[in-house]
Amino acid sequence: MSFMVSDSTLTIKFGKRVLDDLYVHIDYLHEVRKYEQYKDLIYDGINAIEAEDLKHCNVAKININKNRISFLQYLSFAEDAFPILNVSWVFDHDKKSLTLRSYSASLNPPILHRKELLVVHDHPLRGMWEKITKSAEELGLFSSGNPIGFKLNWQRVIASKGLRFDGNEFLPLGNQVEHYCNENFDINSPIQRHLTALSRSSISAPIQLLISHGLITESVDVFDYGCGRGDDLKALKETGVKCSGWDPHFANENCPLPADIVNLGFVINVIEDPAERVEAIQKSYDLARIALVVSVMLYSKDRPGKPYRDGFVTSRNTFQKYFIQDEFKDYLENILNVEPHMIGPGIAIIFKDKEKEQRFLVSKYRSSNIARRLMGARLSPKTSRVQNLRLSRTPRISKANRLAEELHPTLESLWAQTLDLGRFPEPFEISNLEILLEKLSLSRAKRLISTLFDQNLLNKAAQTRANEIKLFFLSRHFAKKSAFKEFDLRLKTDIKHFYGDYKTANKEALKLLLASANPDEIRNACEEAAAEGLGWLEENSHSLQIHTNLVERLPVVLRAYVACGLILWDSLSDFQLIKIHVLSGKLTLLQYLDFETQAIPLLIKRIKINIPKLDYDFFEYEESTFPPPPLLYKSRYMHEDIDGYAEQVEFDEKLEATGVLYDFDHPPNLRQIQEKLSAQRLEISGLNLIESTSIPQLEQKCGRYLSFKELIHCGETQARLGSPNLPLNPKTYNALYSLSEELLDPVIAYFGSIRLTYGFCSASLVSKINSRIAPKLDQHASHECNKHGIPICDRLGAAVDFIVEDEDMVEVAQWISDNLQFDRMYIYGREKPLHISYSTNTSRLVTFMCASSFGRLMPRSCSPEDISEFASKLIDF
Questions:
Q1: Positive or negative CA dihedral for 197, 201, 203, 204?
Q2: Is 121 part of any domain?
Q3: Smallest Cα–Cα separation from 580: which of 621, 617, 548, 623?
Q4: Of 33-37, 97-101, 544-548, 764-768, which has the strongest mean pLDDT?
Q5: Cα(437)–Cα(402) distance, rounded to whole angstroms?
Q6: How far is Cα 602 from Cα 617, in angstroms, rounded to an integer?
Q7: Are residues 468 and 533 in the same domain?
């Protein structure tokens, strides 16, 4: 919606209002600065930002309530219909601080809609931009509920309508989709979609983790030692994995068989004989060719049954032995004399194949989807040479360019492999090597890649991979050393390419370890991460809190810091957030209930690791003892690339706009927040903040000054008959609240108390009022329906008639028109009640009800700006 501020001399007729934020083009910031309420904020913000940085900005975002101004750089603002946000500088006037945030590496950066509202009406491009917006509106792309504020979410909405955006037009999506659309449409990689599908089946957590680590594929076979009813085996067979199992009760006819991967899932914790437990572990390990995975139950507050031997026996006469994570790891190592690797709470993997083990350990520090992130991120408006060749309209193309165009799909695939490795792949690492060699030699392919693709991306990928080698060697300082000959061929190749030899790699890892203990290094890295949108940096740079999925994208010194902390607590799989404490050398892991599906999830577990002391504290939260703290502003700790981010941002902005969080002196719990929202006729539903679906008590406040009862039990007929006159639809109560908040509260605050003469009118009350009402038009019935379920008044909203004693009601009407948004206003006279309504459609229609020569009231329309002047021309009004 456009924004208009007016006083006696000036009017701003441009700008876009989104909740409390006002967006304007930077070229017109001086117009906004003329207003007293904006002047100091804009002046101080401009002084805080470097002049050179300000030159690159094209949009300003102003928030008076938060006392902040943001200077935004959108790429190709004039050319792109929906430009992408590249960098933002946010000046906080209260803290006198300027924060930089870069979106250049984001796959899903924020984008700008309705940019025509940011410029003046005579801007030369405004007409073209308005046509694009109008077209999007007509196609339903801006309909409520669509999270369109980010690039990939916007692309999904367009595609869901069967469209694509080409130039300045929305066109039908044909059968053949351009390659770049397929590449950017879905931010989830295939393996991530595959795991999401598996998580909806009965497959167990240990098997899911093995799949996520790439240890279970169609090329390996699996044996489930103690398979129970065989749910895991059924799920694996459906995905094409060769598997079998044995169980002493459910599958006793089968024989234990050797396999690449052997699963001993939640078996040893139900064996009451300690010696038999050891035998089960040894037997299952002997069957494994690559690795054994063992899972057990960990201690928790709820332990059913009575103590028996070293565990508990239940009422059904079953046995449970519970472990502590560290105890479990030591237990396995003592039995097998092999180092276990913890991949989840109570889940350990023990390798037999040393080459596979080293590959697994390296993969723990290997960032995922390097090529996709680097190739997908919009680092500059420029296109690659290959793209330029493809888009060129020059009829004469050289033989070399034509060959490059023909080979482009092959070279692009090879380029992606190169970025993933951080170096040109060796022959054994190239997928479809034979097909590649049919078209050109490896040396020729390497030359073409070096000339056709951006080598700056390769430099970034190389730095990432070199850092990950250091992280791997850093982790080996805390474990049994492995001989160089035990490393797999790819790791040996990496060490030789990035460091030359094994000794140098170890030396660099030690330097990184020392840097991770330096608070200055940690603070600088935290500030760098926050500037890239990775996590939330607390005030005074005390700590950085970040989603665990983003750890691999942190600066290497922070990844080293986290790796040191995880020496004591091996897995992040159960945690959603991680907090890096800058000065204390501590690391906190945070687990929330229903983190992905709740806008305000509750903290249920916290692990605080003291790295220098090699110790940790464990905290659990439950309502009866320690109420779970709510996580507010969840989007701060996420990133544009994380699924659900757009919805969470929308929720957080709506919650912030309600102001309920400012009503507390101490951090509130979820119930207190819900009560405050309920008073505003709002409630939380999943990731959404919606209008209330409940019916309140009539005595409950409806806005600042009135109660629902006052708005419902008013009017002569209702008072005379004592009719209950109760709304039955929760939406009616919501509409009455909006009417009070948007219209009646400001009127009372300015003029003083008012007298309500006619408020809500139910269907039963309508039947008892004889004349001078129009229930199908006047909105007094709000959202109530007739006996056929059809709204009595299809305008919806809510309406009230009121009078301000000792005030000219024409002047009251003029003040409302000048300062407030309303739907319809009916003026009956200077000393008579004023009818006013409010709905989501603020049409601002003003009607004077004038007596004709026959004594009947006749409507006469008037411009909202001319109420007083129009009234002065009416006789006997």
A1: positive
A2: yes
A3: 548
A4: 544-548
A5: 19
A6: 19
A7: no
In a domain, 290, yes or no: yes
Q: How confident is the model at residue 711 (pLDDT cuts 50, 70, 90)?
A: very high
What is the domain extent for residue 63?
5-184
Q: What is the mean pLDDT of residues 16-32?
A: 87
| 403 shares its domain with 340 | no
Q: Of the spans 3-17, 66-80, 147-161, 564-578, which averages the highest pLDDT?
A: 66-80
- Clarify whether residues 441 and 463 are in a common domain: yes
> 835-869 burial, b for 16+ CB within 10 Å, e for fewer?
bbbbbeebebebbbbbeeeeeeeeeeebeeeebbe
pLDDT surpassing 70 at residue 322: yes
The predicted structure's pLDDT at residue 709 = 93
Domain co-membership, 488 together with 522? no
Question: Residue 12's pLDDT is what?
Answer: 57
Does pTM top 0.85 for this prediction?
no
Q: Does 695 fall in a domain?
A: no
- In order, the DSSP letters of 216-236 are S-TTSEEEEET-TT-HHHHHH
Give the burial string for 342-358 (b: 16+ CB within 10 Å, else e): bbbbbbbbbbbeebbbb
Mean pLDDT: which of 254-268, 342-356, 841-855 is highest? 254-268
Bridge partner residues of 90 (DSSP): 70, 99
Domain count, the chain: 5
* Residue 741 DSSP code: I
Residue count of the chain: 877
Place of tokens 């507050």: 301
d(CA 155, CA 169): 14
User: Does any domain span residue 821?
Assistant: yes
What pLDDT sits at residue 390? 40
Instruction: List, for residues 830-860, the tens digit of each pLDDT value.
Output: 999 999 999 988 899 999 988 766 667 788 8
Q: Radius of gyration (Cα) for the chain, nearest Å?
A: 33
What does the buried/exposed string (b/e) look like for 713-741 if buried means 16 or more CB atoms within 10 Å of the residue's CB? Answer: bbbebbeeeebebbbeebbbbbbbbbbbb
Counting residues of the chain whose pLDDT is more than 90, the rounded percentage is 42
Q: Which of residues 343 and 23 earns the better pLDDT score?
A: 23
Are the CB atoms for 636 and 625 separated by under 8 Å? no
> Whole-angstrom Cα distance, residue 475 to residue 566?
10
Please identify, among 460, 493, 515, the residue that sits at the C-terminal boundary of a domain: 515
CA distance 534 to 638: 7
Helix residue ranges, H only, 778-862 = 809-819
User: Which residues, 6+ apart, have CB-to-CB distance to 261 below 8 Å?
Assistant: 210, 215, 216, 220, 221, 222, 223, 288, 290, 291, 292, 293
- What mean pLDDT value characterizes the chain? 83
Tokens of 864: 């909202």
Domain check: are 412 and 344 in the same one? no
CATH classification at residue 772: 3.30.1380.10
* CB-CB contact of 558 with 573 (8 Å): no
In whole angstroms, what is the distance from residue 170 CA to residue 142 CA?
14
- Write out the E strands in 175-324: 221-225, 242-246, 259-265, 288-295, 306-308, 311-313, 319-320
* 76 shares a domain with 44: yes
Residues 109 and 92 in one domain: yes
User: Which tokens is 819 given?
Assistant: 């300062």
Say yes or no to pLDDT of 177 above 60.
Answer: no
Which of 462, 494, 515 finishes a domain?
Answer: 515
* Beta carbons of 194 and 201 less than 8 angstroms apart: no
SS3 424: coil
pLDDT for the residue numbered 840: 87
| 801/759 Cα distance (integer angstroms) | 6
Q: Are residues 111 and 22 in the same domain?
A: yes
Using DSSP bridges, classify how beta strands 259-265 and 288-295 pair: parallel, antiparallel or unpaired: parallel
